[in-house]
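CORE FACILITY INTAKE
Project code: CF-77B
Contact: R.S. (postdoc)
Sample description: multi-component assembly, two entities in total
Requested service: structural model of the whole complex
Turnaround: standard
Below are the sequence entries exactly as provided by the requester. Do not edit them.
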Amino acid sequence: MKTSISSLEQARAAKVRAKEVFPRLVDVAGIGITRLDQGYAVKVNLERQPSPEVSLPGELDGVPIHIEITGGAHKI
Amino acid sequence: MELDSVRELKASLTQAVVVPVATRAASLCYSVAAQPFRNALPDFQTFHRSLALGVARRKKNDFTLAVRIQQRLLENSSEVERIRKRARGEVDVRYIGKVGKCAIPWYRQRQRPLRIGCSVGHFNITAGTLGCFVTNLAENDRSFLFLSNNHVLANENRAKKGDAILQPGVADQGTDPSDLVGSLERFVRLQKDSSNRIDAAVALIRRGFDPEPMIKGIGKISGLVADPAEGKLVSKVGRTTGPTEGRISAFEVDDVVVGYDMGNLKFDNVVEIEGAKDEPFAQGGDSGSLVVNEDLQAVALVFATSDVGGKNGKGLTYTNPLGPVLDKLEVRLVY
């Protein structure tokens, strides 16, 4: 499916799907929404670099997916 | 010169030149304007700036006498000329002026009135940050409270109502009772077995301690933001990193697992911030900092950071949106 400019509501719906899809594939450190110059994307934070054989989706339901390696989190 | 020769020369010139100059400088300082003795006392008791001698390396085994001048008047003085001659020109002379200790920034010092961004904490923790001032929702309740994290004011659920809150926190030499500014009033319990949305607590400010709602170096809070996703540039003042600028990199972030003393806790509805410059937005001790946007609207409360990430690679800062924090604690923002 072609990725287009996504609304906030579309990104929220895609986030729900991402919360089902990504934890099965990688160690997720958080899933949220990020703002783009135009529209929104789902942001998926990972604890570590995924192994090369794992293929992660670049979009879900037409909403772009931004992946970032963040490591773990701790109180400060 | 050889190292031993420079050391001998230094010892000899210290007695012959530096001590007499220092004594002369001290005698000038007794001429002070009339003022309370307490204010003047440090001048009588301290050493006075003059010359300092040391050893400087020129090459591997070649040393020279280092002469450091702490008063402009001594720059072309006969004393410096005398040192130059005794060392046969093998000197490294520099004017260094007044030398001060590294100053402790205001946000780690005692603040009266209490200020947003300063060091604060439960008596049993190191230190966190005073986020902002709030009042109870009841119209006739005029008491002021301040907001920070549960893990700053309530020691991760371990504290009880009435416990001492110190400003500055213990890590910044805060002591009870000298720095006792408030008492724990209430907190949102951190949950181990279900998702958290808030790490927050409020302390009741003791009578006689005034709150200053202006954020030093940033400005006056203009209100509460309706939606944290609006506006991306933000700033904060925290006990460790002071004022920093950042950018909201994500919002409504769920399933963030954060390490606490009580174990790993899961958080939902987190606002994620990356440093806008080449520095992290927050570090250990900044917990409880209030995040404001460009319009000085209060956005969120800092509570955690990630190991890595962000465009500058300095890690991400995790925050709780302020609206739900205020609602849960049943308080109103003071600005």
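Facility notes:
- Helices of chain A lie at 8-21.
- Chain A is about 20% helix and 35% strand.
Invoice: internal transfer
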